Amino acid sequence: MAELTIEDSSPGVAGLHLDKLFDHLYRVEASRNRQTGGSGLGLAICKQIVLAHQGEMKASASNLGGLKVTILLPLA
What we know:
The protein is an alpha+beta fold. The chain is built from one helix and three strands, in the order βαββ. The protein has one domain (2-73): Histidine kinase-like ATPase, C-terminal domain (Heat Shock Protein 90), CATH 3.30.565.10.
């Protein structure tokens, strides 16, 4: 497996949102809507691309205080 990990610093995402981040149209911030920006599709599309390649994508808390996204893909 190949692993790609992306981490950022604070602010992070509350733990209760981590399982839903890749859901279609899900937004963590209530202030983000169609009028102010963001459609809630980006991470859902990314996850579908990873799944189409028999991979796995997950979100967790970063040691830097923000979000950590890990993508695992099988090697050819």
